[in-house]
Amino acid sequence: MNIFVLVKRTFDTEEKIVVSGGKIQEDGAEFIINPYDEYAIEEAIQKRDALGGKVTVVTIGGEDAEKQLRTALAMGADEAVLINTEDDLDELDQYSSAYILSEYLKDKEADLILAGNVAIDGGSGQVGPRLADLLGINYVTTVTSLEIDGTNVKIVRDIEGDSEVLETSLPLLVTAQQGLNEPRYPSLPGIMKAKKKPLEELELDDLDIDEDDVEVKVETVEIYLPPQKAAGRVLEGDLSAQVKELVNLLHSEAKVI
Amino acid sequence: MMQTENLVFLEELREGVRAVCKRFDGAYWRKLDEIDGYPTDFVEAITQAGFLGALIPEQYGGSGLGILEASVILEEINRSGGNAGACHAQMYTMGTILRHGSLAQKERYLPKIADGSLRLQAFGVTEPNTGTDTTNLKTFAKREGDHYIVNGQKVFISRVEHSDLMILLVRTTPKDQCVKKSDGLSVLVVDLNEAVGNGLEVRPIKTMMNHATTELFIDNLKVPVENLIGEEGKGFRYILDGMNAERILIAAECIGDGRWFIERATKYAKERVVFDRPIGQNQGIQFPIAQAHIHLEAADLMRIKAAELYDRHQACGAEANMAKLLAADASWEAANVAIQTYGGFGFAAEYDIERKFKETRLYQVAPISTNLILSYVGEHILKLPKSY
């Protein structure tokens, strides 16, 4: 099995987002592997251990993303590839990311490509399906179970709280939903072995991609934080007066009854 | 100066430990504190992830790292709000076997200690009437054929109920028959699964903090002669050999606690608003936190110096002892600052401060009392008259 996992470096879920000058401030923030991508990495490692083969983790980003790749290697991936666009591109969108990945993957003869269901930052969930489309292979999103027998694949996918069972075949791209597995953390031997595993760095030139080919199609108009939650209101008076006031507010202010 | 590559690795190591600890949050440790429970799940997780095998050579299934890396692992456990005291012995008690055991003993024990299938977490030295005055210990092992017959009593022996093996220091030659009082002591490996109920009685001691410590009553306990580590009579030296490593590792735990306290206190001081301003704006709150931070950073430098000397196989007794004292003082200062910053909430269990406060207090007393470090520095470094 030739397995590839698409990995994205994202803000730590515990990080407080600060917007300043129309941009999200990254200074001093902690970054992690997108949590949904961790399910993808774990599944790739399990499938490799069961069926043989190789797991390659791929990311697009800057030098900083090397750290997340090292973590994936420490978890047990065999090789890592950083497509470094730091010097070539100011921004990326779903279109350009999918295009770059497809140019990298088109001659790699991947049997299975895994990605997170969404990245917790952008949250579009588009790059996986777009990539599969560009590569001309099957794809299934939000999978919670993946069974591979030869080239036959049986999948359970999450459909808004319900499950759907599908059958398809390799080569295939799937995006991982929570519940697919319990991602391992890097072990100490894993961290030490990761130091010796190959981490290849590529630039757009290496993939024969022209900067014009990957001009973003999405324009960011504005970035702002959700409005702060207003403080609650405490009703006063005796119980019957409070109930009366509450019903009144639900009717006249909230307009729900 | 550390090389960049080493710094990157240490950072990866820290993150690796944090990733494990993240799954065992404040609520997990609080619950255990309430019931005096042992963190079995945590210890299993950190062992299976290989972190407690850091000091075991690669040929025996460990990672063959130095004391600096090992100390970083324990530091991060405490820094994450956990308590490395529950598992640190699994990391370093094996040192006695590694340094003085036979090849057969190393092959028998070390790989299983590295993978966690064998827990060597108990270290029986202290006795009710002989604390640091180790050479006066009374527990005696008499050789009879292929066995030692052991009789005596030990106290404050931690994690015995959560360990498969125990390193036991016993007297094998009566003191009055020895040239030096430090002669005649020997180290035995006791298989606890066989010993308990067959000459070994374990009684838990309830303590201020959740520490799983016990009292041992040893009555005609049979220990096979093949479980003797090294040579008979040289046990005291074997135990002393491990002391510098232990001092450095414990110093690192203190540093971890201290960092946890400072981070908590700083965050709270920024967020807690009283009289329309964050309390951290008041110098009465801010300065003690800053002071504790400074002392912690200084202690950390001594710990790193001691660890680097140790890893280069250079003499580090002074540095290891001083690091332990400085770090234990700094973590205690930070604990006090944190509880003062939190005010009444510092005493409420749900904020974790009181739990860590109790835990870090121990380091002033165990595994070595701060006073004994002062005696050591006075006598051995400054060449003052021996004070005890």
From TrEMBL, chain A:
Heterodimer of an alpha and a beta subunit. PROSITE patterns: ETF_BETA (PS01065). It holds the Pfam family ETF. The electron transfer flavoprotein serves as a specific electron acceptor for other dehydrogenases. It transfers the electrons to the main respiratory chain via ETF-ubiquinone oxidoreductase (ETF dehydrogenase). CDD domains: ETF_beta. This is Electron transfer flavoprotein subunit beta. Its cofactor is AMP. Belongs to the ETF beta-subunit/FixA family. PANTHER family: ELECTRON TRANSFER FLAVOPROTEIN BETA-SUBUNIT (PTHR21294), ELECTRON TRANSFER FLAVOPROTEIN SUBUNIT BETA (PTHR21294:SF8). Residues 21-211 form the Electron transfer flavoprotein alpha/beta-subunit N-terminal domain. The keyword Electron transport applies. It comes from Solibacillus merdavium. Keywords: Electron transport, Transport.
Automatic annotation (TrEMBL), chain B:
The keyword Kinase does not apply. Keywords: FAD, Flavoprotein, Oxidoreductase. It comes from the Bacteria. Residues 11-116 form the Acyl-CoA dehydrogenase/oxidase N-terminal domain. Pfam families: Acyl-CoA_dh_1 (PF00441), Acyl-CoA_dh_M (PF02770), Acyl-CoA_dh_N (PF02771). Residues 122-220 form the Acyl-CoA oxidase/dehydrogenase middle domain. PROSITE patterns: ACYL_COA_DH_2. Residues 233-366 form the Acyl-CoA dehydrogenase/oxidase C-terminal domain. Its cofactor is FAD. Belongs to the acyl-CoA dehydrogenase family. This is Acyl-CoA/acyl-ACP dehydrogenase. The lineage of its organism: Bacteria, Bacillati, Bacillota, Bacilli, Bacillales.
